[in-house]
Write a structure and sequence with these properties.
It is a single chain. The chain is an alpha/beta fold. The protein has one domain: 3-Layer(aba) Sandwich (Rossmann fold), CATH 3.40.50. A 7-stranded mixed beta sheet has the order 1-7-6-2-5-4-3, covered by helices on one side. Strand 3 and strand 4 form a beta hairpin. Helix 1 crosses helix 2. The two termini are 28 Å apart. The mean pLDDT is 93. The protein binds adenosine-5'-triphosphate and magnesium ion (MG). The site of adenosine-5'-triphosphate has 20 residues, from helix 1, helix 2 and strand 7.
Length: 161
């Protein structure tokens, strides 16, 4: 079997915010739970903006807040649940265990985690990683697969670019 850690890595051209959120809205239709996506990149790289457009693309009508202070936001949609984590301010991975992320992350859930490197082993492993990079005023997004479901998502990402 192919080593999934090396399959399916696709990078966008630099995108403005409208192009990037358009991509995220289209990608929403390709989210099939259970799915764990890690979103990586510097402060202000566009992670929350991307998640907001994904959640709106799923049809969520309300406000999509950044979970920077609350650590976790969740959204109940007709076909799936979204958990949005931002671990930037986490003291230690034990806080994730306290939140019960492993129990909340069930077969109906898409988990989207910003600053995943701060979660350590308490965070479920990524099916796919999205890397956000500044390119002048624009952002480049790279989708990397780490499981077969992540690979399917990355191929959808590439098709939708
Ligand atoms: N593709 C883009 N092109 C230009 N500006 C963008 C793009 N995506 C997001 N922005 C802008 O960048 C700023 C920061 O975005 P955002 O909050 O999504 O970053 P973040 O990666 O979540 O940061 P943090 O690590 O602090 O949570 C916002 O003002 C947003 O409007
Ligand atoms: Mg953010």
């Amino acid at each position: 079997m192919a080593d999934v850690s090396t399959t399916g890595s696709f990078a966008s051209d630099p995108m403005d915010e409208a192009a990037m959120t358009g991509l995220a809205r289209r990608l929403a239709a390709e989210l099939h739970p259970p799915l764990c996506i890690h979103l990586e990149g510097d402060l202000g790289a566009g992670k929350t903006t991307f998640v907001r457009a994904l959640v709106q693309g799923l049809g969520y009508p309300g406000r999509v807040k950044s979970p920077t202070y609350g650590l976790l936001e969740h959204y109940d949609l007709p076909d799936l649940k979204v958990l949005h984590l931002d671990l930037y301010r986490i003291g230690d991975p034990g806080e994730l265990e306290f939140l019960g992320i492993v129990d909340l992350y069930d077969e109906c859930t898409v988990l989207l985690a910003e600053w995943p490197e701060r979660g350590g082993d308490a965070l479920p492993a990524a099916d796919a990683r999205l890397l956000f990079e500044h390119s002048g005023n624009l952002r480049r997004v790279t989708c990397m697969a780490h499981s077969s479901s992540g690979n399917a998502l990355c191929h959808s990402f590439n098709r939708l670019l």
